[in-house]
Write a structure and sequence with these properties.
Blueprint lengths: L1 H39 L8 H29 L3 H41 L3 H4 L1
Helix pairs in contact: 1-2, 2-3
Length: 129
C-alpha cells in the first residue's frame, strides 16, 4: 500500500511539473504572438509591452507555484535530510522570485490605472474658476 501511495504521489508530481511547463510554454508563445501581432499591425512603435509583460508575469507566477507544489509532493514521499534541505532552498528561491514578480505586477497595474482614469479626475481650467 505504501508503495502505491509513493507511486501515485510521484506521478502526480510529474503531472504538476508538466502542467507548469505547459503554462510557461503557452504563455511564452502567447507573449511572442501578441508582440509580433502588434509590430505587424498598425500599432507599430506603440507595442503594448506593459500588457504583454503583465500577462506573461501572471502566468510565470502561476508556474512557479505549480513547480513548488510538485517539489513538495516529491519530497513528501521520501524525505531525507538532503531532500528537505534541497526543498527548503528551492522553496526560498521560488518564493522570493514569486514575491518580487507579484510586487512588480502590482506596481505595473498601479501604473496603468492612473493613466486610464486620469482623464476623469483631471480638473479643467473651468473647475478652478
Amino acid at each position: 500500500m505504501e508503495e502505491l501511495i509513493k507511486l501515485i504521489t510521484l506521478s502526480l508530481a510529474r503531472w504538476v511539473e508538466a502542467g507548469a511547463a505547459l503554462v510557461i510554454g503557452i504563455s511564452s508563445l502567447r507573449a511572442v504572438w501578441n508582440y509580433l501581432r502588434a509590430v505587424v499591425t498598425d500599432q507599430g512603435l506603440t507595442v503594448p509591452k506593459e500588457e504583454i509583460r503583465l500577462s506573461l508575469g501572471r502566468s510565470l507566477a502561476l508556474a512557479l507555484e505549480l513547480e513548488l507544489g510538485a517539489d513538495i509532493l516529491k519530497t513528501a514521499v521520501a524525505p531525507t535530510w538532503n531532500d528537505i534541505g534541497l526543498l527548503a532552498a528551492i522553496a526560498v528561491l521560488r518564493t522570493a522570485l514569486n514575491y518580487f514578480l507579484e510586487r512588480e505586477l502590482r506596481n505595473a497595474e498601479k501604473r496603468q490605472l492612473p493613466t486610464s482614469t486620469s482623464a476623469v479626475n483631471t480638473p479643467t481650467p473651468d473647475d478652478a474658476a
